[in-house]
Design the sequence.
């Protein structure tokens, strides 16, 4: 506690403004628990940049923690590009303080003699990723906490290719940041270095999105869509992209269309949660819509609900939408003619079905750690290969490589193209998905997240991972565990034969068990939230579409048995 108090007292010095000092003094005198959580560590970069609760302290998002990041990046850019005119582009979402924090970040860059393009109003994350390359910038920054609760904000860093920072840049940048004292942040803005941007970049992004997401679907007027932006940034792009692509039958949920950092109509602005789309689904049932789509606050994730075999709207998971989107893109590429250099991308905790799809179409499936920065790195590391598309289980997808992060703008259009095309052909999005299960095997996934907040929660999550490693699971629902993949040690071991293999991707705190029947379980602490996540995948052969309902029920029961077995139900 004494070290925490000592750290807090450094925030009472002349380096910090009077408002900050008043708030720190209040914590010291009145709220020990909040003081501890605000100062017990430095906020760290995770899988999706830096996210945290807004407030004073080293473990909070504020002008000083973000200013320090920005000063460190400025110093790093000058080392890496000593003779270049440096340029950055900055965007921000609908969250409280995003606009003022974005302005602070712009001011620090400008104070370091770096040209800044700052979006004049809130914009989507995919628009920021696109803008990095479009404006030929060295770095991009977006102020967002994605789908986290209202008290959060965040800071994501993009490199020259439009993808988020990865090794070696990430560790080098973090080392540069950690060298700094808060007193070394240059807040003295040079306003002549800051240029507001909007229409020109918007037009380029929207045009590129329509170009990459359109596939001449038939009978678009006959395809009825309900869309909700969940109070986020997608309202600036998705309705316009759908309109330009020829979709006239689109109902926007007006009570969720206005950007609002309180997200007043939802418990969580996360399209992974069925509750978040409940208003849109009700509207869709009322008007007989074919599809519901909702996006998270910064518009990189999308949730999709479509009509199931009983005609009811059903929210699909990220694995299901990823599989069908990827298959559709592969089919389009096949019709043009494969050139032999194609690949698709996925992650280690996503459905194994992506590999089955790759086998079906005889293309490569590259698999990476969780986080779209790794999929962007795949593209960067394979300049002579053609990236068809890819995604991860957490409701994110990338259509081609013109945006180097998950892109709910273009993916929304792609989903509508698939749905409209299927309907015109007497099928549906859901039926096309079942057909894919017949082709590749029926894989069903489930995610379980446990929230553990604060310092004690972090310790609990750490201990859970240690326990899983020291006391490995030996069977899953009666099937022997065959492989244990430990991404911390980069080793995969066949516990039946004793065979060991090296895992040739960067180390990460992930443990995966694979049973003899193909059942897969992964344990992974979240890189952006105080959670530990458990990912499950079970599978069976599906001989014909008519067998789907029975097989679906059997796999659901299997997952429930596994959850009970592991005390996770």
Sequence:
């Amino acid at each position: 506690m004494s070290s925490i108090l000592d750290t807090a007292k450094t925030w009472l010095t002349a380096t910090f403004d009077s408002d900050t000092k008043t708030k720190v003094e209040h914590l010291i005198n009145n709220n020990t628990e909040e003081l501890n959580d605000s100062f017990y560590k430095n906020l760290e970069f995770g899988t999706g940049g830096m996210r945290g609760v807004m407030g004073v302290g080293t473990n909070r998002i504020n002008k000083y923690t973000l200013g320090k990041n920005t000063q460190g990046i400025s110093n790093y850019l000058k080392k890496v590009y000593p003779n270049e005119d440096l340029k950055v582009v900055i965007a921000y979402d609908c969250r409280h303080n995003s606009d003022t924090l974005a302005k602070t970040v712009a001011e620090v860059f400008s104070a370091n003699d770096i040209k800044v393009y700052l979006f004049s109003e809130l914009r989507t994350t995919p628009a920021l990723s696109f803008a990095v390359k479009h404006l030929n910038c060295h770095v991009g920054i977006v102020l967002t906490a994605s789908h986290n609760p209202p008290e959060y904000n965040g800071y994501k860093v993009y490199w020259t290719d439009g993808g988020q920072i990865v090794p070696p840049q990430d560790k080098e940048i973090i080392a540069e940041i950690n060298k700094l004292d808060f007193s070394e942040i240059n807040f003295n803005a040079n306003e002549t270095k800051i240029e507001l941007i909007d229409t020109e970049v918007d037009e380029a992004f929207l045009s590129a999105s329509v170009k990459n997401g359109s596939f001449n679907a038939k009978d678009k007027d006959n395809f009825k869509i309900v869309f909700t932006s969940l109070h986020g940034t997608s309202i600036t792009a998705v309705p316009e992209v759908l309109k330009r692509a020829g979709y006239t039958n689109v109902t926007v949920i007006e009570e969720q269309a206005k950007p609002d950092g309180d997200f007043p109509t939802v418990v969580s602005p996360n399209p992974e949660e069925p509750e978040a789309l409940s208003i849109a689904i009700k509207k869709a049932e009322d008007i007989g819509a074919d599809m519901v789509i909702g996006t998270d606050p910064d518009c990189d994730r999308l949730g999709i609900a479509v009509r199931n075999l009983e005609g009811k709207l059903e929210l699909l998971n990220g694995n299901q939408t990823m599989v069908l989107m990827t298959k559709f893109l592969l089919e389009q590429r096949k019709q043009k003619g494969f050139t032999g250099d194609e690949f698709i991308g996925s992650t280690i905790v996503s459905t194994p079905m992506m590999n089955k799809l790759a086998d079906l179409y005889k293309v490569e499936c590259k698999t990476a750690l969780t986080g779209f920065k790794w999929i962007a790195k795949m593209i960067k590391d394979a300049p002579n290969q053609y990236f068809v598309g890819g995604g991860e289980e957490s409701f994110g997808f990338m259509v081609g490589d013109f945006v180097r992060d998950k892109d709910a703008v273009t993916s929304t259009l792609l989903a509508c193209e698939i749905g409209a095309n299927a309907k015109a052909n007497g099928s549906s999005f859901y039926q096309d998905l079942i057909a894919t299960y017949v082709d590749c095997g029926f894989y069903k996934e489930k995610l379980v997240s446990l929230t553990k907040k604060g310092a004690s929660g972090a310790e609990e999550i750490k201990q859970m991972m240690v326990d899983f490693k020291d006391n490995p699971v030996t069977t899953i629902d009666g099937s022997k565990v065959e492989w244990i993949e430990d991404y911390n040690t980069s080793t995969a071991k066949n516990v039946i034969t004793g065979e060991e293999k090296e895992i040739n991707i960067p180390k990460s705190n992930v443990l995966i068990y694979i049973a003899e029947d193909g059942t897969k379980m992964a344990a992974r602490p979240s890189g952006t939230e105080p959670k530990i996540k458990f990912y499950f995948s079970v599978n069976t052969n599906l001989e014909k579409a008519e067998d789907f309902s029975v097989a679906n029920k059997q796999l659901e029961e299997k997952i429930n048995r596994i959850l009970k077995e592991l005390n996770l139900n």
The chain has a mean pLDDT of 96.
